[in-house]
Amino acid sequence: MGRTVAFIDAGYLEAEGKKALKAAHGEHSIDAAGVAEWIKGEVKKRFPTDQEAFLRAYWYTAAFDPSDDRFDAQRGFHGAVESVPGIQLRLGRLVQRDPNWHVAVKAALVKCGVDLVTFGEHYEFRPYLTQKGVDSLIVLDVVRFAERRVYDWGILIAGDRDLAEAVQVAQDTGARFIVAYPKGAGMAPELRHLADELVQIEPHELKNMFRKRKVKPDESGEPLEVVRTD
Asked: Which tens digit of pLDDT belongs to each residue from 157-173?
């Protein structure tokens, strides 16, 4: 049988896809409809006569807390993802952090007699966003759906080593896994070795998965820099 479910680490696909396309930072954002069409095309290649082979895709990313000023703008982006037929959204959390080196550098500047207000006119100490819980959601769904025999084939667009054990558990139930990645993207060896099939997403395919931004990154609610800390 060819029942197929896709698991998409949106942060991984966006970051690595932009690298493959050599896209300037902030000019493009990922297009869920384009990703869904690529997945459906891959399923159709393998099961051309099975019109019901593709079940759905799960889109994993992280969201600001509702109390954050950026929540409403980001919610619009997530709403667009949810509106794509065949895609369901799974959300982890975004937490803002100041790098430890900020404190040391500021202290050194003060000791050198530099006024921090004046310095701030030329350089901005920017926090970063940590993404929490996304890998855990992928692991849960990969294993839970496999144990319930929801899918025969899984398409995983991700590269994190933490997902390898979940894939292995799913394979033990009889599921097979296609691990897909943008051309040149990093991938944990453990995940690569477990794949029943490896698929490289070529640049011409990636172009259909991205669109020009209509607003600046910080206005859209999408983070400028995200660090995964699952």
From this structure: 999 999 999 999 999 99
- Higher-scoring residue by pLDDT: 198, 26: 198
Question: Phi/psi class of residue 108: alpha, beta or left (left: φ > 0; alpha: ψ in -120 to 50)?
Answer: alpha
DSSP 50: -
Q: State how many domains the chain has.
A: 1
pLDDT of residue 170: 98
Highest mean pLDDT among 14-28, 101-115, 154-168: 154-168
Question: Quick check: is 129 in a domain?
Answer: no
| Residue at 105 is within a domain | no
Residue 44, domain CATH: 3.40.50.1010
Residue identified by tokens 């369901």 is: 88
Instruction: Decide if 114 is inside a domain.
Output: no
3-state secondary structure of 164: helix
The end-to-end CA distance of the chain, in Å, is 34
- The parent domain of residue 9 ranges over 4-94+134-228
Return phi, psi of residue 180, to 5°.
-110, 145
Tokens 């901005």, residue located: 124
DSSP β-ladder status, 87-97 and 54-63:
parallel
Region of 221 (left: φ > 0; alpha: ψ -120 to 50; beta: rest) is left
C-alpha closest to that of 198 among 157, 151, 142, 140? 157
The Cα 36–Cα 228 span in angstroms is 24
* Measured CA angle at 87 (ends 85, 37), to 5 deg: 70
